[in-house]
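Q: My labmate handed me this sequence with no annotations at all. I'd like to see what the chain might look like in three dimensions before we decide whether it's worth expressing. Could you predict it?
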Amino acid sequence: MPKNKIISEVFNEDSSTGVALKNKTLKKLIFNILDKTVSSSITEISKELNISVPKTTSLINELIEDGLLHDYGKVESTGGRKASLYGLVPDACYFLGVDVKKYYVNIGLMNFKKQLVAQKNRIPFRLENTPESLAQLISILKTFIKESPVKKDKILSMGINLTGRINHTKGYSYSFYHFQEEPLSHYIKNTIGIKTYLENDSRSMAYGEFMFTDVASEKNALFVNIDYGVGLGMLIDGNMHYGKSGFSGEFGHTPIFDNEIICRCGKKGCLETEASGSALIRRIKEKIAEGSTSSVNKKTKGVEITLTDVINAANNDDMLCIELLAEIGDRLGKGLSILINVFNPELIILGGALSETGDYLRLPTKSAINKYSLSLVNNDTELRLSKLGEKAGILGACLFARNKVTFSQKFGPL
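A: Here is what I predict for the chain of 414 residues:
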């Protein structure tokens, strides 16, 4: 049997029963241990799993034969005898992470040791709920896979981030591409030939940020994705929070404001109507119509204004954009004060496109938090900007795909 087929079989539990299924579960638990420790001895793994040394040795040897583990050699042990250390083989298998934005797609390829080996950002695209948009996304994915530095059959799975309501367990998207009866994840898998999983973009970005930055001691943290809309990823008691149906985090559709602005959800007064990228663009258009000047208007005359245009303008000292970012930050802070009063989080991370404006957004947001939330509660909360930026979505999607296929779901936030 070819090596790639052997590797795929190691992770495939569909046709396994009895001892075979138990051994596959134990192998996934070994991966969890080595994922956290980088390398461990057979004795250490045996104690962690509470199974015998001979059984652990047998499983380790099988995984070495399968090309998934590597013997790093012997080191001095506490008892004086040298013990071999074992770790994951980086190029044993790979995982795709796809972060779908409104006007572009970011894609990354991760190896078995969680290292990005290929990445392509801002591939032109337009997210619309149409068959044409889905066909364009499929074409982009096929092109990336074809140009990938590894063979397609070594890519075990793919994670795709989409905005809106996602059932990540069944693979349904209820906001985009729901044209067929079968789950969207199954359709993409059958079309491209790689096992596919869907995740909400904000939650996936949060997971990437939590796992790849120094969010280690915090067990209760919030990641706010401020893009054209406003999304939320929640780490509660050290675990990602999904809610009963997996639809938690629809922070942008909290009815906060008394206005007549229709939100994209169809209701009025949602946070997104006054504290999002879409709201920012609307305010800029209104101000320009009233006679205000901005470099955005000069650069985009006759063309649709995008968030990228506004962000670039603000970061190049465009006063109108900076002033309106302060307005957005104040209203965002009002919404965040509710979350702080309810959850009492240790950390709030501002991510997504608008976080690229740095303190132009963070400072007015922080000021509004101080104004609207209980001081005794917000004193416990650190507010900071995303350290990964757009990379958070790619990493989160890759990790999500990796964990779904190769790791025991008893471990880790996802």
